């Protein structure tokens, strides 16, 4: 009896193991097409996510660029940045600083030589924002600025050369004073010559009038 029971238990275990093996063998295998489609869907989802992130970055860059362009446009219209006056690529904190810049350029730049591009932009903006009649002065356009000895005032003076070849002088002092008022002793009048140490004729900071002959420069 015991031997029969043991045999029955062994047979039962064998049948159970066989059934489990059969279940494992008959488990449905994953369709290769479905696996491929799953990988493709996952890849597409990642690409869409990356594209979405890229669009967000592009939008941010465009917004930042737009803000920067607006700032530069405002500066180009003459608005000051942190209280400074913008002339071309350069900024000034006071009328005296502006005056000193143009005065030094006037006296250090060689005569009858075109001023470089950087100072050209500064001088052009000075005319546009500081001259009483900029459109008339600029005319059809300015191709160059030069420092020349003025035939009447016997001193160095800024000259503009228009596109048609015609040239004309202008007073940087008046332009500066129009943008930001200069101290009284630096304004364009005869007493400024003595106050700023100018001598007869040219050379001194206040000697733009020379001996007072002829018309005043504009």
Low-confidence stretches: 1-7, 17-27, 74-79, 190-216
Structural class: mainly alpha
Largest sheet entry: 3 strands, antiparallel
Helix and strand element order: HHEEHHHEEEHH
Share of residues in helices:
40-55%
Number of H- or I-type helical stretches: 7
**What is the arithmetic mean of pLDDT?**
72
Rough shape?
Answer: elongated
Strand content: 5-15%
Tally of extended strands? Answer: 5
Distance between the termini: 134 Å
Order of strands, widest sheet: 3-4-5
> Using only CA atoms, what is the Rg?
42 Å
Can you describe what's shown?
- The structure is a single chain.
- The N and C termini lie far apart (134 Å).
- The protein has a three-stranded antiparallel beta sheet with strand order 3-4-5, with helices on one face. A two-stranded antiparallel sheet has the order 1-2.
- The chain is mainly alpha-helical and 218 residues long.
- The longest helix has 45 residues, at 32-76.
- Mean pLDDT is 72; it is low at 1-7, 17-27, 74-79 and 190-216.
- Helix 4 packs across helix 6.
- It has seven helices and five strands, in the order H-H-E-E-H-H-H-E-E-E-H-H.
């Amino acid at each position: 009896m015991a031997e029969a029971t043991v045999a029955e238990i062994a047979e039962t275990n064998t049948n159970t193991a066989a059934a489990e093996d059969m279940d494992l063998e008959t488990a449905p295998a994953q369709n290769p097409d479905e696996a491929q489609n799953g990988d493709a869907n996952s890849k597409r989802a990642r690409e869409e996510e990356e594209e979405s992130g890229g669009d967000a970055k592009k939008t941010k860059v465009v917004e930042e660029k737009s803000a920067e362009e607006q700032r530069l446009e405002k500066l180009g219209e003459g608005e000051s940045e942190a209280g400074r006056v913008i002339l071309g690529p350069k900024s000034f904190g006071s009328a005296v600083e502006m005056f000193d810049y143009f005065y030094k350029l006037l006296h250090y730049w060689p005569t009858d030589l075109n001023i470089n591009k950087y100072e050209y932009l500064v001088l052009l903006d000075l005319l546009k924002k500081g001259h009483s009649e900029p459109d008339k002065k600029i005319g059809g356009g300015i191709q160059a600025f030069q420092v020349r000895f003025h035939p009447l005032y016997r001193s160095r003076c800024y000259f503009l050369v228009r596109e048609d070849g015609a040239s004309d002088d202008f007073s940087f002092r008046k332009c500066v004073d129009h943008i930001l008022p200069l101290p009284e002793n630096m304004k364009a009048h005869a007493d400024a010559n003595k106050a700023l140490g100018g001598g007869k004729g040219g050379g001194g900071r206040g000697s733009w009038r020379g001996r007072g002959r002829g018309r005043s420069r504009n």
